[in-house]
Amino acid sequence: MHSFQYSRAKAVDDAIDLLKVDNEAKVISGGMSLLPAMKLRLAAPSALVDVTRIENMKGIAVDAAGVIRIGAATTHFTVNQSEILRARLPSLSDLAGGIGDVQVRYRGTIGGSLANNDPAADYPSAALALDATIITDRRRIKADDFFRGLFETALEPNELIIAVEFPIPRRSVYLKFPNMASRFAIAGVYLARFDKRVRLAVTGAMASVARLTDYEQALERDFSVSAIETLTIPDSACNNDVHASSGYRAHLVGVLAKRAVLACVE
Ligand SMILES: Cc1cc2nc3c(=O)[nH]c(=O)nc-3n(C[C@H](O)[C@H](O)[C@H](O)COP(=O)(O)OP(=O)(O)OC[C@H]3O[C@@H](n4cnc5c(N)ncnc54)[C@H](O)[C@@H]3O)c2cc1C
Q1: How many other CB atoms are found less than 10 A from the CB of residue 28?
Q2: Whole-angstrom Cα distance, residue 148 to residue 192?
Q3: What is the pLDDT of residue 189?
Q4: Where are the domains of the chain?
Q5: CA-CA distance, 54 to 154, in Å (whole number)?
Q6: Neighbouring C-beta atoms of residue 87, cutoff 10 Å
Q7: Stretch 207-219: mean pLDDT, rounded?
Q8: pTM here?
Q9: Which of 28, 134, 160 best tests ligand 1's pocket when mutated (most atoms within 8 Å of CB)?
Q10: I need a labelling partner for 264 at 20 to 30 A (CA). Which of 5, 10, 197, 204 fits?
């Protein structure tokens, strides 16, 4: 690995100032994606600004309107263990408990995962299905506008995610078929059932996380497995790699979507 400067920010303003000093500086949170990328020389920042000690970027709270706010530097382990989430949004704590292994969950953070937007990551599907808002140092971004494609987001250079806000649906579930080595999703489906709306997001199967709007509309009319029985996604829309063929991934999405509906029937 090439040499780089390392600084630990104490506050959001401190992190912003440190990032401004060097055009090639990058935020580091859990380091679970960035450090492997640096070791492989896919990334070569000249400076790293560590945000994991910024207190108001950590923790989980619920406001008076029932919206859950999770600090960007909150680890997957903390999300998995959260009593607030277990009581109000168990699908999200379950998702966090299925990420990687215990070492990854202790270090990796929700903000890092969203910023990275790996096509097989779990959190992007939660943000999209739950209609989350990503809060940065300069604006609020709806999840629908945040994910732009393979490892691409709406974040501008050095824009820092501070927190993520999740509305609470009536019912929700995340189901994934994991890669047995990494636990990244071969395919994963996050289904959220709100009072009037249904949102369904898929990860792992395609080039980037995406909502399946035809499934959503069918489920809004009739929330049942039979409503989506005939729906499919084309094999050509799915990833084809050493882990699974595109046809297999397309099939998995259909199976997981039906299981998700069964899990959310009231
Ligand atoms: C062995 C292994 C298995 C894994 N399995 C899974 C899995 O099953 N499911 C899954 O979803 N993920 C998995 N991951 C990825 C893991 O969840 C990472 O923790 C996550 O993708 C990145 O989070 P991080 O905090 O480590 O971010 P980092 O690696 O520190 O950063 C990643 C990127 O995000 C940027 N960034 C970080 N924080 C912020 C912020 N607050 N604002 C703006 N930009 C920021 C960084 O600059 C960098 O570009 C796995 C990783 C490993 C190593």
Answers
A1: 22
A2: 21
A3: 98
A4: 5-51+58-166, 171-264
A5: 23
A6: 10
A7: 98
A8: 0.97
A9: 28
A10: 204
Task: Give the sign of the dihedral formed by CA 152, CA 153, CA 154, CA 157.
Answer: negative
Ligand 1 binding site (Cβ under 6 Å of any ligand atom): 26-34, 36, 51, 72, 99-100, 104, 107-109, 111-113, 115-116, 118, 121-123, 160-161, 182-184
- At 146 the three-state DSSP class reads helix
> In the numeric block, which tokens belong to residue 238?
């799915």
Per the DSSP assignment, residues forming a β-bridge with 192 are: 172, 199
Per-residue pLDDT band for 1 (boundaries 50, 70, 90) equals low
pLDDT at 216 over 90: yes
The residues near 235 (Cβ < 8 Å, ≥ 6 apart) are 245, 246, 247, 249, 250
Q: Which class is 171-264 in CATH? A: alpha beta
Q: Residue 178 in contact with residue 94, Cβ under 8 Å?
A: no
Q: Which two tokens stand for residue 34?
A: 């960035």
Token pair belonging to 71: 């600090």
Give residues with Cβ within 8 angstroms of 202, minimum separation 6.
125, 187, 188, 189, 190, 209, 210, 211, 212, 233, 253
What separation in Å is there between the alpha carbon of 252 and the centre of ligand 1? Answer: 25
Q: Give, for 104, the enclosing helix (H) or strand (E).
A: helix 102-107
| Secondary structure letter of residue 155 according to DSSP | P
The pLDDT value given to residue 2? 82
CA-183 nearest atom, ligand 1: 8
* CATH assignment of 5-51+58-166, among 3.30.465.10, 3.40.50.300, 3.40.50.720, 3.40.50.620: 3.30.465.10
Averaged pLDDT, 31-57: 96
Asked if the domains at 5-51+58-166 and 171-264 fall in one CATH topology, the answer is no
